[in-house]
C-alpha cells in the first residue's frame, strides 16, 4: 500500500565513521567541514558508538562516545511512520543493515522529495476518506445548510469549471478541505460516529493539515512549522488512514468495526 511505500533507506544519509584511535581535532574538523551532526565511531572495525557534534569534549573518544544501545536504530525497510515517531523523541535515528549502522536520519531529512510525496499523498487519502463519509451522510448535498453561501458558491464555481473540462464530480468533491472539516465539526452525529473529538479540535487538526499541504505545494520548509501534522499523518489520524479502501459501510453510517475511533 501507498503508506508503506516509503521506508528508512529512502531518507537516510550515509553514516560516516572513524576508528576510535582518531585524533579529536580530526573528527571536529571533519564534522564542521561536511557539515555533520553525527559520526560513527569504530572499534576493531565495527561501529560501536557515536559522537554528536554538539556534545564533543576533550575526553578520549572511547569515554565520550554514545553506545549504540542508547540510540534509536531501525532497519533499512522500516516504514517512515515509525521513523517519524522516533524522531519525535530523538534528534536522529540510525539505519542499519546486517546489524551494523550504515545511515542516519535527521528531522531535516524529512524534507526530501520521497517524504514530500508521501505526506502530500497521505493528506489526499485522508481527504478522500472524509469526503466518502460526507457523501453518504448528506445525500443530495444536504450539507449545504451547514456552510455559508460564500463557501457553497466557491464550490459551485469550481464544479462548473471541472465540468467544463469534462470531469464528472459531485459538489462535495469541490469543497475545500477546511469546508469538509467544518461539516464534521458542526455535525454531532458524524463526530460521534467517526471523529470523537471536539469541534475546536477538528478545526485545528484540519487547519494544521491545510498548512502542511500548502507548504508542500509551494516547496516550502515544513518540518518545524508543521511537525504536529506530520505526527498525525504518521499515525492513523484518528482512524481515517487505517482502512482507506473500504472505510464506510455501503448501507449505513456505521464504520467497519472502528472501535478505536
Distance between the termini: 21 Å
What's the arrangement of strands in the largest beta sheet?
A: 1-8-7-6
Spans of at least 5 consecutive residues with low confidence: 243-261
Coarse structural class = alpha/beta
Percent of sequence in beta strands = 5-15%
Approximately how much helix is present in the residues? 40-55%
Count the beta strands.
8
Query: Overall 3D geometry?
Result: elongated
Q: How many helical stretches?
A: 9
Mean pLDDT: 90
Taking the sheet with the most strands, its summary is: 4 strands, mixed
Domain count: the total is 2
Rg calc: 24 Å
Q: Order of SSEs, N→C?
A: EEHEEHEEHEEHHHHHH
Topology of helices and strands:
Blueprint: E1 13-14, E2 17-19, H1 24-33, E3 38-43, E4 46-52, H2 61-64, E5 66-67, E6 73-75, H3 80-87, E7 92-97, E8 100-106, H4 113-137, H5 149-164, H6 177-186, H7 188-193, H8 199-217, H9 227-234
Parallel strand pairs: 2-3, 6-7
Antiparallel strand pairs: 1-8, 3-4, 4-5, 7-8
What is the compact description of this entry?
The protein is 41% helix and 14% strand. The chain has 261 residues and is of the alpha/beta class. It has two domains: 2-108, CBS-domain (Roll), CATH 3.10.580; 113-234, no CATH class.
Amino acid at each position: 500500500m501507498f503508506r508503506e511505500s516509503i521506508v528508512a533507506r529512502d531518507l537516510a544519509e550515509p553514516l560516516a565513521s572513524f576508528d576510535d584511535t582518531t585524533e579529536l581535532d580530526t573528527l571536529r574538523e571533519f564534522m564542521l567541514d561536511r557539515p555533520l551532526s553525527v559520526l560513527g565511531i569504530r572499534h576493531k572495525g565495527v561501529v560501536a558508538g557515536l559522537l554528536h557534534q554538539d556534545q564533543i569534549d576533550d575526553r578520549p573518544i572511547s569515554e565520550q562516545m554514545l553506545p549504540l544501545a542508547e540510540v534509536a536504530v531501525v532497519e533499512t525497510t522500516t516504514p517512515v511512520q515509525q521513523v517519524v515517531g522516533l524522531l519525535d523523541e530523538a534528534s536522529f535515528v540510525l539505519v542499519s543493515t546486517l546489524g551494523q549502522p550504515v545511515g542516519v536520519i535527521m528531522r531535516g531529512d524529512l524534507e526530501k522529495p520521497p517524504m514530500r510525496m508521501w505526506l502530500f499523498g497521505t493528506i489526499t487519502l485522508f481527504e478522500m476518506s472524509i469526503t466518502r463519509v460526507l457523501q453518504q451522510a448528506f445525500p443530495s448535498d444536504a450539507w449545504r445548510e451547514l456552510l455559508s453561501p460564500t463557501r457553497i458558491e466557491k464550490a459551485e464555481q469550481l464544479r462548473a469549471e471541472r465540468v467544463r473540462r469534462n470531469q464528472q464530480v459531485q459538489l462535495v468533491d469541490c469543497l475545500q478541505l477546511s469546508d469538509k472539516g467544518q461539516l464534521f465539526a458542526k455535525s454531532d452525529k458524524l463526530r460521534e460516529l467517526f471523529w470523537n473529538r471536539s469541534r475546536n479540535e477538528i478545526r485545528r487538526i484540519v487547519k494544521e493539515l491545510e498548512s502542511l499541504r500548502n507548504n508542500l505545494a509551494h516547496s516550502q520548509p515544513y518540518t518545524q512549522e508543521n511537525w504536529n501534522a506530520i505526527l498525525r499523518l504518521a499515525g492513523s489520524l484518528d482512524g481515517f488512514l487505517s482502512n482507506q479502501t473500504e472505510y464506510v459501510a455501503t448501507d449505513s453510517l456505521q464504520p467497519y468495526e472502528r472501535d478505536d475511533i
